[in-house]
Write a structure and sequence with these properties.
The chain has eight helices and 19 strands. The protein has helices spanning 40-43, 145-159, 173-188, 193-210, 215-227, 278-299, 308-311, 315-328, and strands at 47-51, 58-62, 66-71, 80-87, 93-107, 113-120, 234-237, 248-255, 264-271, 338-344, 349-354, 363-366, 378-381, 385-391, 413-419, 424-429, 438-443, 450-456, 460-465. Strand 10 and strand 11 form a beta hairpin. The two termini are 45 Å apart. The relative contact order is 0.07.
């Protein structure tokens, strides 16, 4: 709305006589913050405020019980003024007596500007200030269904071959593991026991997927986890080829019937006479999605997972690969590969290689050797790390201690990072953001073995700009 200057005049009532400030004493202490407040953006020029004699003021906010406004003229607390509000369309004028509750200097540009807060002696009536009727509350699903639906979405995304992003030969293994790790984190933080049990199932399943264990081995792990919650005798897929046990209760859940020409069924067997309650059935259904996901994932080849027929190499090629690997630890690397040292929050160290790291993703693939088989690769969740060090040589110098002073003029801001375990690292950064997963730091000493480090924000106690 247009901002015009206003001139203060002695307080007068609508009839022109002075307005005694004592009349509004009853409004002192009244809580006006419960009224709906409109900003200039909300008003969108529908109302213009001014003093009674025509000088405009700039509204900061407005409610039926009071307003804040700015003016270049001196405003004193406990004074009374008469304000008029003009409808921009109808030109109808609404007039109220306002008592100044507080006033202060709000700006010194082009002179002094005062901001005043006032309470109206009577409510201001205008259609713009009416509170709209509340919309009827929509029924919301139980909170736990969010996890159920998320797991179902993950299953369908990686199970349905019709989805191009996960078609055979094009699926990205890290995308599945990243989604499952986010689900695990959410499940473990929930107060509901079934949610936490889902977190335990994922904790057993994710490392097995990282090691690319066979389906039967992973299903056994899930069975062992479930056996602590349910009297489970067996848990199998329709591909297991084993007959059902006699004299038992069995529940079969069909998964992905509309997603594949070979629908998947998960069967759970319980002692005779056992019946599941609602929470137990929910846990079984969640487990079925996990079993089906593992079975489907292992039945379809992954883009970077070589088959047994293609993984056999002639003996001469194996020797050549071993020789190249020895050179790779301190010599040139294939394009896109980096030597990395992973430092976990628990102190564990891993030395190896990666050509898969990206700071926007939640995990990446780590290889103990360059070009190793897919079965030897490890998918590393960044949340478990303290830092990733990109190094010149994997052997390094164990006796070297890098200094904390700069031996070069850095391009970014100089920072000193203190980790939660007390370690201090000095360097420079171009992209530190407190709300990001991590950021790169170039060491202060370029003569050391570290080229740069990706520091995980959650592992930091504090960071100081130096």
């Amino acid at each position: 709305m247009p901002h015009a200057r206003a001139t203060l005049h002695p307080p007068v009532d609508p009839s022109g006589s002075d307005v005694p400030s004592a009349d509004v004493s009853t409004r002192k202490g009244v809580e006006r913050r419960t009224d709906r407040r409109l900003t200039p953006t909300d008003l969108r020029n529908s109302l213009v405020a001014r003093y009674r004699h025509g000088e405009s003021v700039s509204l900061v906010d407005l409610s039926i019980g009071g307003a804040q406004f700015e003016t270049p003229r001196l405003v004193r607390p406990d004074a009374d003024v008469v304000l008029q509000f003009v409808d921009s369309q109808t030109r109808e004028v609404s007039e109220v007596v306002a008592h100044i509750l507080r006033a202060n200097v709000s700006a010194l540009t082009d002179g002094i500007t005062y901001r005043a807060a006032c309470a109206f002696k009577r409510p201001l009536s205008h259609p713009t200030l009416l509170v709209p009727a509340a919309a009827p509350a929509r029924a919301t699903a139980p909170d736990h269904l969010k996890l159920d639906l998320e797991l179902k979405a993950i299953f369908e995304a990686h199970f349905k071959p019709s989805r191009a992003a996960y078609a055979v030969g094009r699926r990205d293994p890290s995308s599945l593991l990243d989604a499952l790790m986010r689900l695990r984190t959410a499940a473990e933080s929930r107060p509901d026991p079934t949610d936490r049990q889902l977190g335990g199932l994922l904790a057993a399943m994710i490392p097995a997927l990282q090691r690319r264990e066979p389906t039967d081995a992973i299903v056994r792990k899930l069975h062992d986890q479930l056996a602590g919650q349910l009297p489970l005798r067996a848990l199998r897929t329709n591909t297991a080829g084993k007959p059902l046990v006699q004299d038992c209760e069995s529940i079969t859940l069909n998964l992905g019937a509309d997603a594949s020409p070979a629908p998947l069924a998960i069967t759970a067997e319980f002692p005779a006479g056992f019946g599941l309650d609602a929470s137990q059935f929910r846990l079984l259904k969640l487990s079925a999605y996990l079993v089906g996901l593992v079975d489907s994932w292992n039945r379809h080849p992954v883009a970077d997972a070589p088959t047994a027929s293609t993984s056999r190499e002639p003996e001469a090629a194996v020797r050549a690969s071993a020789s190249a690997e020895a050179d790779a630890r301190h010599g040139p690397l294939p394009p896109g590969w980096n030597r990395v040292v992973l430092r976990y929050t628990d102190g564990q160290l891993l030395h190896g290689f990666s050509n898969d790291f990206h700071p926007s993703r939640g995990c990446f693939q780590f290889s103990p050797t360059v070009g190793c088989p897919a079965a030897q690769r490890l998918v590393v969740p960044i949340a478990r790390l303290k830092a990733i060090f990109f190094v010149k040589d994997l052997r390094g110098d164990q006796n070297r201690v890098d200094g904390q002073t700069f031996d070069h003029e850095p391009r970014g801001r100089k920072v000193q990072v203190t980790f939660r375990d007390g370690e201090v690292m000095t360097g420079s950064t171009l992209g530190y953001k407190p709300n990001e997963q991590g950021f790169f730091v170039v060491p202060a000493n370029k003569r050391g073995n570290n080229l740069r480090a990706y520091v995980v924000t959650a592992a930091i106690r504090h960071i100081r700009i130096i």
